[in-house]
TrEMBL record:
GO terms for cellular component: cytoplasm. The keyword Acyltransferase does not apply. It is an enzyme of class 1 (oxidoreductase). Transmembrane segments: none annotated. Keywords: Cytoplasm, NADP, Oxidoreductase, Queuosine biosynthesis. InterPro entries: GTP-CH-I_C/QueF (IPR043133), NADPH_dep_7-cyano-7-deazaG_red (IPR050084), QueF (IPR029500), QueF_type1 (IPR016856). This is NADPH-dependent 7-cyano-7-deazaguanine reductase. The lineage of its organism: Bacteria, Pseudomonadati, Pseudomonadota, Alphaproteobacteria, Hyphomicrobiales. It catalyses: 7-aminomethyl-7-carbaguanine + 2 NADP(+) = 7-cyano-7-carbaguanine + 2 NADPH + 3 H(+). GO terms for biological process: tRNA queuosine(34) biosynthetic process.
Length: 152
């Protein structure tokens, strides 16, 4: 599991971590605790490696959450996601691991992640995970990623 801290990466030049295990997810205080709103992060060029062939896998990752007391610090999230570039894991493992690491860090009121993986071998794999109850009256837009249609 990645280590967690409270934002020492912010404002410093930092190299991309070599692996998700070396990455440090950071959090900052939510300036609006008690207000139900959705924060969204989109990583349209996420990459990891197939654990069997070593070939690159590509995904469009969408992360939505309703914060409690904490927000994920965006620079640390960018570095964490980039650390998967040389990490060998199946699509399902990458998507769920990212979700669980963020839930552990943030303890959000509600969380969901969509991993929209591009096809290799002719089969796209989409992976979705959600935890918690969406607070009543909270607006959550569609993740906005169309199902894979090839060239159509």
């Amino acid at each position: 599991m990645s280590s967690f801290s409270d934002a020492p990466l912010l404002g410093r030049a930092v190299a991309l971590p070599a692996s998700p295990e070396e990455a440090k997810l950071e959090r900052v205080a939510n300036p609006h605790p008690g207000t139900s709103y959705v924060a969204r992060f989109t990583a349209p060029e996420f990459t990891s490696l197939c654990p069997v062939t070593g070939q690159p896998d590509f995904a469009h990752i969408v992360i939505d959450y309703v914060p409690g007391d904490w927000l994920v610090e965006s620079k640390s999230l960018k570095l964490y996601l980039g650390a998967f570039r040389n990490h060998g894991a199946f699509h399902e493992d990458c998507t769920i691991r990212i979700g669980k690491d963020l839930v552990t860090l943030l303890s959000p009121l509600w969380f969901r992640i969509g991993g929209y993986w591009y096809p290799r071998g002719g089969i796209p794999i989409d992976v979705f995970w959600q935890i918690g109850e969406l607070p009543a009256g909270t607006w959550v837009p569609d993740q906005g990623v169309a199902p894979y249609r090839g060239r159509g």
